[in-house]
C-alpha cells in the first residue's frame, strides 16, 4: 500500500513538473522583459507629499534635515560660516574659478535671469518687479557693491544678506560664480572688453582653476 502511495505521489510530482515545463515553453517568454512583480511593497514604497504628515516620524515632518556632518555627493562644503567676519574672509580668500569667457558669461546671464532679475532688474539697477513693490535698495551698480570682492559676493549669494534670502541650496556653486561674472559685466568693470571675453570658438565652460565651492 505504501509503495502504491509513493508511486502515486511521485507520478503526480512528475506530471506537475512536466506541465510546468510545457507551460513555460508554450509562453515563449522574452527574457528582455521584466518579470511579473508581486509583493513589491519594499521596492516601491508609498510616496509622501512634501507638506503631508509622515506617520513614520515622531514629529510628523515629511521633509527631513540631512544627517549632521553629511555632505551631498559631488559637493565641496562651504568652509565659511554665515557671519560678517567669514563673509569678509571669503572676500579675501575666494577667487572666481571661472574665466570670463563668452560661454561662462552667457551661462551667468541665464542664471541671473532665473534667480536675480526679479529683484535686481534686467540691468542690475534694482528695478525688478519685486523691487518695484518693495523698494529696498537692490541695485548692483552702486559703489559699495562694485567694491565687494567676488568671494564676498559668492558668500552673499550662498547665505543671503539683509532682505536677500540664501540661494546656496538653489544654485550650484559653478553657476553662482557664473552669475558673478555676469554681474561684473553689468557693472562694466572690464568684462565687456575684447581682451577679457574670449570668442565662442575658444570659450570653455570649465573652471580656470581654484576652489569650486
Briefly, what is this?
This protein has 213 residues and is mainly α.
Q: Residue-averaged pLDDT, rounded? A: 77
Distance between the termini: 83 Å
CATH topology of the domain at 84-187: Cytochrome Bc1 Complex, Chain D, domain 2
Helix % is: 40-55%
* Unreliable spans: 190-213
Strand count: 0
What does this structure look like?
This protein has a domain at 84-187: Orthogonal Bundle (Cytochrome Bc1 Complex, Chain D, domain 2). The protein contains 8 helices and no strands. It has helices spanning 2-27, 84-93, 102-115, 117-120, 129-133, 143-147, 150-159, 173-187. It is elongated. It starts with a helix and ends in a 26-residue tail after the last helix.
Give structural attributes.
213 residues; mainly alpha; Cytochrome Bc1 Complex, Chain D, domain 2; 8 helices; 42% helix; disordered C terminus
Secondary structure: elements and pairs:
Layout: H1 2-27, H2 84-93, H3 102-115, H4 117-120, H5 129-133, H6 143-147, H7 150-159, H8 173-187
Helix pairs in contact: 2-7, 3-8
